[in-house]
Every structure is written in C-alpha cells, then in structure tokens.
C-alpha cells in the first residue's frame, strides 16, 4: 500500500483521558471499516512518545489510498456519541507526490495467548509469552475491546524509521498496522 491522502484525528479537552484509551476507542470504531476496505488504510502516531511510559500520543494519523473511503471513516468517528465532542478532525490532505522520506513503519507486536495445542507446545508458548510480555512493557499500546467476545485487550506496536522505500509493499492489518513479514512504510510528515 502506498497512501495518497491522510488526515489527523486529534484528542481535545479531557486532560485526564489516557491517549491509549482514546486512540484505541477510535480504532475500535474504524476497525470494521478498515477490514472491509483491505489495503486501503494505514495508521501512524505523529506524537508517539517512547519514554518511561510509552504512549501513542493524542493524534492518530489516518492514511488512505482512497479519499472517499477516508471521508467515510471520518464520518464514522463524527457519528460516535462518546467521541465526537472529544475529537478535532482535520481536513483530508494529499500526500506530497515527490515524497522521498523519511518513512516510518508501525508494526503490530503480538504476545501469544496462554493456551497452546498440547503440553509440549504449552510450555514453549508460555516461555515465549513471558519473554514477549517483558518486551511489550517498553512499547506503546492501544486499549481495545473485542467486538466478538467483548473482552478488553492491549494492542502493542513498535515503530521503526526507514530511510529507503522498500521494493515490495505490505498490506496493513485490520487496525491499519504493518505485519512483521510485510511492512507498510508511511511518510513521516511534520
């Protein structure tokens, strides 16, 4: 995916509202739309902070290959009664055509579940889970709620700046993040 347009969605007011909850709520609303329009949306976090307590920041940048699909996504956010008064939706802008970098990749970081196939796999899975959980504590995350089972979960991601645009482009997942095997580089716009 190589995006053509983008828009910033900013949290306003409510100083005590954690960014991970706000951005997670916005992505929960957008997830079904993103899933229907695969290879159309990707997300970036221009205010990402990686200090002692990593945070996605108060701005979610939506990238898209389709202006109409991006406008429809913004309509979904405006229609949500819990978020609409907290959001500042900026206008849709064109990604500069001659953009040569830098690029940034926001990749989902998965932590395995507790359950394995059998006892042999279970022990290995739990060791990997412990290792990944320790690593995840240093990463920014979003708080989301599953639509299928209603449970809350943390979606961790890692960010990497890349100087050259790759030859092969990946497809974002249903949350607009890169997959480990298929990066989606996004313009690091100011």
Summarize it.
Helices cover 26% and strands 25% of the residues.
Describe the protein's topology.
Layout: E1 5-11, H1 19-36, E2 41-44, E3 59-64, H2 67-79, E4 87-89, E5 93-94, E6 103-109, H3 119-136, E7 141-145, E8 152-162, E9 186-187
Antiparallel strand pairs: 1-3, 1-4, 1-5, 2-3, 6-8, 6-9, 7-8
Q: Can you offer a commentary on this structure?
A:
The protein is α+β, with helices and mostly antiparallel strands. It has one domain (5-187): CRISPR-associated endoribonuclease Cas6/Csy4 (Alpha-Beta Plaits). The chain is built from 3 helices and 9 strands; from the N terminus they run βαββαβββαβββ. It has helices spanning 19-36, 67-79, 119-136; strands at 5-11, 41-44, 59-64, 87-89, 93-94, 103-109, 141-145, 152-162, 186-187. The strands form 2 sheets. Strands 1, 2, 3, 4 and 5 form a 5-stranded antiparallel β-sheet that branches. A hairpin with a 6-residue loop joins strand 7 (141-145) and strand 8. It is globular.
């Amino acid at each position: 995916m190589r995006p053509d347009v983008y828009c910033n969605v900013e949290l306003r007011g409510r100083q005590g509202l954690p960014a991970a909850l706000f951005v997670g709520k916005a992505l929960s609303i957008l997830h079904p739309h993103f899933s229907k329009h695969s290879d159309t949306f990707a997300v970036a976090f221009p205010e990402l902070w990686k200090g002692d307590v990593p945070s996605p920041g108060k701005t979610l940048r939506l990238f898209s290959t389709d202006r109409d699909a991006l406008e429809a996504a913004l309509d979904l956010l405006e229609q949500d009664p819990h978020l609409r008064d907290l959001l500042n939706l900026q206008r849709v802008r064109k990604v500069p055509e001659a953009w040569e970098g830098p690029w940034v990749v926001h990749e989902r970081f998965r932590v395995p579940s507790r359950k394995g196939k059998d006892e042999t796999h279970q022990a290995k899975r739990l060791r990997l889970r412990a290792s990944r959980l320790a690593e995840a504590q240093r990463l920014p995350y979003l708080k989301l709620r599953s639509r299928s089972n209603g449970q809350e979960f943390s979606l961790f991601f890692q960010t990497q700046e890349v100087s050259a645009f790759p030859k092969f482009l990946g497809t974002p997942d249903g949350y607009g993040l890169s997959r480990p095997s298929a990066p989606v580089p996004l313009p690091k716009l100011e």
